[in-house]
Specification:
It is a single chain. 39% of the residues lie in helices and 22% in strands. With 289 residues, it is α/β, with parallel strands linked by helices. It folds into three domains: 6-85, Arc Repressor Mutant, subunit A; 93-159 and 247-282, 3-Layer(aba) Sandwich (D-Maltodextrin-Binding Protein, domain 2), CATH 3.40.190.10; 162-244, D-Maltodextrin-Binding Protein, domain 2 (3-Layer(aba) Sandwich). Helix 7 links the parallel strand 8 (178-181) and strand 9 (201-205). The chain starts with 5 loop residues before the first helix and ends in a 7-residue tail after the last helix. 29% of the residues are buried. The model has no long low-confidence stretch (mean pLDDT 87).
Length: 289
C-alpha cells in the first residue's frame, strides 16, 4: 500500500462526517466530483471499501468506521500543532460552547470574560448539541452534566433554575397559551418537560432563542432559564422556579489543555461570573410579576 497523504485523509473525514459529497465539497472548497474521485483513489490505495454509496449519501462500511475513528484521533492530535504554526498563533482563540440561554447570559457579561490586552480571542460556539471536547471540536463547554470518561476535566459551576415567563405588555395574560420547542428539537429536559404537561401549546419553535423572541412578542408563555428570563425587563415571571427542572451546570475542558495560560484565564473568569451571579442563575430573586 502506498503512503496515504494527510490531505486525502482529511477529505475522507469530511465525507464520513457529513455523509455525502455535497456537504464535504462545501466544507473543503472542492467540487463534488473531485471529492468523489479522491475517495475512489483512497479506497484503491487502502484496498478497502470505505463507503456504501446510495442516492441518499455515503454510509461508512465497517472498515470505513474504523478508519474514521483513527483519523478523528489524528485530527485531535494535530490541532495543537496547527494552532502553533498558524499565522495568528501569538493570539490563540478559545472556543467556548454553550446552549442559547447560557451563551446569551455570558455574552452580556463579555467585559468580564475578555479584557483589553488579553493575548487571546474568544469564539462563542452556540449550540444545543454536545460538541466533542476530547477531540478538540471546542476548548471549553458549559453542560448540564459532568464529563464521563475520556481525557476530560470538569469544574462544577452552580445551580441553574428554570421558570415560566410571559411578556409584560400582554393586556390579557390569563388568555395566553404556551410557546414550546417542537418535539424534534426538544432535547433539553426543560423543553421535554413542557410536552408532558397538560397545557395548550399555541406556537412551536426550533430553538430556545426563538422561544424567547416569541414570548417577548406576546405569543404565549414559555419556559426559560432564569439567567435569561430574569435579565429581560420585557418579561414577567409566571409562578415560582420549577424545582423539577433545576440542574447543575458544569464547565468541561480537555485535561491536557486546562493549564494553558489563556484557557486557564477564561476558566477562572467563567467561575468568577458564576460565583457573582449565583442567586440570579439559580432563580433566587424576587418575582417581578
Amino acid at each position: 500500500m502506498k503512503n496515504i497523504s494527510w490531505d486525502d485523509l482529511q477529505v475522507f473525514f469530511h465525507v464520513a462526517e457529513s455523509g455525502g459529497l455535497s456537504a464535504a465539497s462545501r466544507a473543503l472548497g472542492f467540487s463534488p466530483a473531485t471529492v468523489g474521485r479522491r475517495m475512489l483513489s483512497l479506497e484503491q490505495q487502502t484496498g478497502q471499501v470505505l463507503f456504501e454509496r446510495s442516492q441518499s449519501g455515503y454510509a461508512l462500511t465497517r472498515a470505513g468506521s474504523e478508519l474514521f475513528q483513527k483519523v478523528r484521533g489524528m485530527q485531535a492530535a494535530a490541532r495543537p500543532v496547527e494552532a502553533l504554526l498558524a499565522p495568528d498563533a501569538a493570539r490563540p482563540v478559545v472556543r467556548l460552547s454553550a446552549g442559547t440561554g447560557t451563551a446569551s447570559f455570558l455574552a452580556d457579561k463579555f467585559c468580564a470574560l475578555s479584557q483589553p490586552g488579553d493575548p487571546f480571542r474568544l469564539h462563542f460556539v452556540t449550540s444545543e448539541a454536545m460538541l466533542d471536547i476530547a477531540h478538540r471540536e471546542v476548548d471549553l463547554g458549559i453542560r448540564n452534566r459532568a464529563a464521563e470518561g475520556g481525557n476530560l476535566a470538569t469544574r462544577k459551576l452552580g445551580k441553574l433554575g428554570f421558570a415560566a415567563y410571559r411578556s409584560w405588555a400582554v393586556a390579557r395574560p390569563e388568555l395566553l397559551e404556551w410557546v414550546a420547542m417542537d418535539p424534534a428539537n426538544a432535547r433539553h429536559p426543560a423543553a421535554q418537560w413542557l410536552h408532558d404537561q397538560d397545557v395548550p401549546v399555541a406556537v412551536l419553535a426550533s430553538s430556545v432563542a426563538t422561544v424567547h423572541e416569541l414570548v417577548r412578542a406576546g405569543a404565549g408563555i414559555g419556559i426559560m432559564p432564569c439567567m435569561l428570563g430574569d435579565c429581560d425587563p420585557s418579561l414577567a415571571r409566571v409562578g415560582q422556579v420549577i424545582e423539577d427542572l433545576t440542574e447543575w451546570q458544569y464547565l468541561v475542558m480537555h485535561d491536557d489543555d486546562r493549564h494553558l495560560p489563556h484557557i486557564r484565564r477564561v476558566i477562572d473568569r467563567i467561575v468568577a461570573i458564576y460565583d457573582e451571579y449565583s442567586e440570579l442563575i439559580a432563580g433566587a430573586r424576587p418575582l417581578r410579576g
